[in-house]
Amino acid sequence: MFHRTTKFLGVSLSLIIINLAAIMERADENLLPSVYKEVSEAFNAGPSDLGYLTFIRNFVQGLASPLAGVLVINYDRPTVLTMGIFCWALSTAAVGASQQFMQAAMWRAINGFGLAIVIPALQSFIADSYKDSVRGAGFGLLSLVGTIGGIGGGVLATIMAGQEFFGMPGWRCAFILMATLSVLIGVLVFLFVVDPKKTNSITHSTGENFDRDELLEKGNGSVSSIWMESWTATKAVIKVPTFQIIVLQGIVGSLPWTAMVFFTMWFELIGFDHSSTAALLSVYAVGCAMGSFLGGLVADRMSQIYPHSGRIMCAQFSAFMGIPFSWFLLKVIPQSVNSYYTFAFTLLLMGLTISWNATAANGPMFAEVVPAKHRTMIYAFDRAFEGSFSSFAAPLVGILSEKMFGYDSKSIDPVKGSVREAFALSQGLLSMMVVPFGLCCLFYTPLYKFFRRDRENARMATLKEEEMF
Questions:
Q1: Where is the Major facilitator superfamily (MFS) profile domain (predicted)?
Q2: What is the distance between the alpha carbons of residues 298 and 231, in angstroms, rounded to a whole number?
């Protein structure tokens, strides 16, 4: 009883702090897009330049993500998470203090490196903390609280952006404040979070749920053995067809989400003030938060009814819904401040329906098609491929808006915005949303054939390892 209580308290406290880390991670991600307009004025940068800032962070994050899988082989996940959090906190503060565009770009790249370490470790932590039947809800809860952080970070930065504090522009203060809070969360992670593998091993003496993977990997501390284990895990992950298919859809499906960083700038160009823009984006974020959690719950239920296809159907539904909502939001609704409530209602419904994929399908399915010891690696390589390719979406939106649809940053009124430039930006956004959503829905289809086989193979591999032990 004592062991069970200790394990429960340790897991509960760890999950609380992990969710706090997810809140700060999403808040950090939303900082820059929320102050695009102010950053544009500070550095005299157009949409393509602003897109480059998002590109460089996402691209570095994608390339560096496999490092998370390597680090987790040699260190426990709380240590890895702490290193990543401190890295992103330092770079966030440095972006706020940057005086030149290239300085900001360099620190954004370092920010991507920190996120590359944190995100896969967070995902594998959640995968190991929940059973298969409720893993969608676990990922949904992580996404829900993370989105709350995104709302907080976005609203805080948007509201602070139009003010000054101690003679410093508000957007710079927002970056420094967020970095300080991130450091505090990093300290909590290092001091109090316990890796699920260790909490599982506590019950060894009672014969319950012992994590054999930890013993199998113990003693392999040399550099050569670490890289050999990393290479083995890499091969095991990349050759899984389910992984290949989800990554393929993710490369395309993440393009619209990366392009959405321009929503703040688009609403301000239409003529909405900082508070109205923050409110609209908060409504959208609330919709996405509720939708991601709802999607996880629905998919858990569907996977019990249709074990081999339920999650796939949920993912395809969510991806498809991105097409009509993107079209209605960017093409049908009049781009005027008088359309405020129409925008708000559309954004809420859009968020509720298009945010299911990661929690309903991708995260839970990844956990089922590889042995537990390779989970961090599979999430890391997913971020590597998706992040690297999707990073091109933001600069492409800027380039399309400027070169094809006539966006001119010199024509913008700092207070009233510019309806003409807002329309040009919306055309660029539409191009990077409708088609990718459709392709994403289509690319899930092969999973109906491969997911069942890959899941059975992973279960057999786990059973063989346990028998060997």
A1: 14-449
A2: 36
The whole-angstrom separation of Cα 411 and Cα 108 is: 28
Would residue 271 be called left, alpha or beta, if left means φ above 0 and alpha means ψ between -120 and 50 degrees?
left
Residue type, 208: E
Query: Cα(430)–Cα(428) distance, rounded to whole angstroms?
Result: 5
d(CA 51, CA 43): 13
pTM above 0.85, yes or no: no
Query: CATH number of the domain at 2-197+237-468, please?
Result: 1.20.1250.20
Residue 417 bridge partners (DSSP): 413
Buried b (16+ CB within 10 A) or exposed e, 219-249: eeeeeeebeebbeebbebbeebbbbebbbbb
> Tell me: the pLDDT tens digits for 33-62?
788 878 888 888 877 788 788 788 888 888
| Cα distance between residue 142 and residue 123, in whole Å | 9
Domain boundary assignment for the chain: 2-197+237-468
Q: What is the pLDDT of residues 363-409, one digit of tens each?
A: 899 888 887 777 788 888 887 777 777 667 667 776 766 666 566 55
Q: Which of 233-247, 270-284, 390-404 has the lowest mean pLDDT?
A: 390-404
Q: What is the DSSP letter of 405?
A: S
pLDDT at 340: 95
Asked if 129 and 263 touch (Cβ cutoff 8 Å), the reply is: no
Using 50, 70 and 90 to split pLDDT, how confident is the model at 214?
very low
CA dist., res. 77 & res. 54, Å (int): 27
